[in-house]
Backbone:
């Protein structure tokens, strides 16, 4: 009976840990959850110095003298902070990290969750238009593990060896 109780407690701990947010609780407490991405994109200057939580997919990461600049297209997030519905976006944002992030690891198509301090906006060319990016200074960043699909052979080749 005691062994069953121990197993139950261990499983409960694993389950609870697996359902927790990827950003530290202390940092999450500081995030202004009332700010939506649409509001931030519409008027980034109004939210200067506010802490926001955003998720999305990396478009590119560029290493600069003063750190790494990441361009991300925003997506919805699940309760753990994982970017979901990657084919739907309200727009893009720029996030600056004071330090080096390897652009081969933080590369195009990787999912990220970022807590950042709003610093305003940056205007950059996006194709043939001038695009207004909300600009953040990264306080915390989580790079999601790539989920690669397993490769299966279409036929059991061993049957053809006879």
Residues:
């Amino acid at each position: 009976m005691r062994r069953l109780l121990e197993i139950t407690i261990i499983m409960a701990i694993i389950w609870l840990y697996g359902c927790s947010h990827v950003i530290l609780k202390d940092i999450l407490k500081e995030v202004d959850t009332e700010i939506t991405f649409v509001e931030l994109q519409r008027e980034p200057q109004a939210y200067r110095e506010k802490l926001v939580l955003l998720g999305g997919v990396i478009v590119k990461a560029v290493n600069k003298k003063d750190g790494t600049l990441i361009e991300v297209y925003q997506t919805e997030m699940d309760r753990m902070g994982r970017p979901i519905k990657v084919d739907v976006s309200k727009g893009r944002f720029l996030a600056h990290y004071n330090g080096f992030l390897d652009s081969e690891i933080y590369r195009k198509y990787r999912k990220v969750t970022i807590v950042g301090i709003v610093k305003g906006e940056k205007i950059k060319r996006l194709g043939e238009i001038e695009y207004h990016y909300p600009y953040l200074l990264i306080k915390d960043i989580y790079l999601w593990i790539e989920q690669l699909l397993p490769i299966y052979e279409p036929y059991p080749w061993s049957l053809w060896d006879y």
Q: What stands out?
A: The chain has one domain: 23-145.
